[in-house]
Amino acid sequence: MSMRFRRSLSASLAAFLAGGALVGSLATAPAAMADSWRDKEHWLKESGITNAWQVSKGAGVKVAIIDSGVDGNHPDLKGVVTGGADASKAGAPNGQKSIGAKPEHGTLVATMLAGRGHTTPTASPSASPSAAPTTPAAGGPDGIVGVAPEAELLSVSTWLGSPNPGGKTDQEQIPIAVRWAVDNGAKVINISLGSTSPDWPQSWDAAFLYAEQKDVVIVAAAGNRVGGNVQVGAPATIPGVLTVAGLDGDGKASVDSSSQGISIGVAAPAEDLVGGIPGGGYAEWAGTSGAAPIVSGVAALIRSKWPEMSAAQVINRIVSTAKDAGAPGKDPLYGYGILDAEAALKGTVPTTSTNPLGSIGDWIRVHRRGDLSAPTQAPVESPTSAPPTLADPTVPVAQAPATVDDALPAAVVLGFGALFIAIIAGAAIQLRRAYKNPPATPEEADTGVMEAVDPPTKRS
Fold first, then answer.
1. Which residues contact 6 (CB under 8 A, 6 or more apart)?
2. Which residues are catalytic?
3. How many other CB atoms are found less than 10 A from the CB of residue 340?
4. What is the pLDDT of residues 361-381, one digit of tens each?
5. How far is residue 45's CA from residue 64's CA, in Å, rounded to a whole number?
6. What ranges in 234-368 are assigned the alpha helix state H?
7. How many Å apart are CA 210 and CA 361, to the nearest integer?
8. Which of 43, 201, 214, 337 could form a disulfide with 269 if both were Cys (CB 3.0 to 4.6 A apart)?
9. How much is the average pLDDT of 75-85?
10. What is the mean pLDDT of residues 213-224?
């Protein structure tokens, strides 16, 4: 990978996070004022989530959030974040320190995905005015409730959007984070980060293949046009990843909050969103960064209801029950359609062994010439974590060139040699003919104008 590509990838990742992830202004409010924020979660009903809760609320499923860190002390996240790590070398070991250009980003995503709300304590008539405030109880009718309120979260912090004091580059942090999440039991991974480039470093291949072979669902945001993402960028372009586009308040493709591309799988609300921020506050925001955790939450609901269901089947259930929108069938604005959580949890969907969004393994075989049956390569550096409980997956190595490729250079050399001999032979024949048949009027050399010289005189 060239230095130029590294620089462009880093810049584009920063552009996504800093320029497009938070489209709306951050209107913060203290936790005690949170009861009004629950009413603003319009997507819970619009996307069929409240009805899906009749079937599942995500219990027993771990969802990893690869982002700027999650504040596990937020009132709506108490008891939710059960593990974490830092891939940047600049955050906290448990992944709960908010870092990077948009430190609030990870907590916004986390509350929308698995927030449990809280109960605001009521003031006692006999309480002293100087008494310390009571800590809100975990869970309750106030604050943000996530799509999968009974799921557990793993926070993997990354530093994106500005120079990382920990020294890890953007492209180094992503595969470290993915591998750690898989090794620590995540069944769903949410990546509300991305780039303006559809390409990704080859160093990412092994990590995303690792997740695919360990049967993990990866959900990624499509990106935001207002942040410079006219087309979907990596990692949302990686085959097998469930890419989420954004909808506006009218349920149409959002002009500001959604890029377009053939890798989009499903669309979900991306405007007029609300979520929690570090320190116990709340914010209004917009972008596919918020649409992705809605879909990740639905994936968690499905994996809780059917623990043995494969990742390919989970993704197929989400996209095949989506409501078709835009051009008939799959299109670059809505993918397979608009998310319908109720249908995804209650509908009858045929069993499949194929991910409708492709396979990173198949892609590697074709584009990297990889042989997935070969021995594994060394894993990428990982933060301190629990020992993996599953066998190492196979990862690609380069194949030997095909026979036709070996023969091609020799054919080219022989061909040019024959042509050179033919040219020499033709020139010899022409010279022989010219010698036997000289031209009728010999051509004289052009000697130029010469001054006449008088003949020498004889000396006496």
1. 169, 171, 201
2. 67, 105, 289
3. 22
4. 999 999 998 656 543 444 445
5. 25
6. 288-305, 311-320, 341-346, 360-367
7. 9
8. 43
9. 98
10. 95
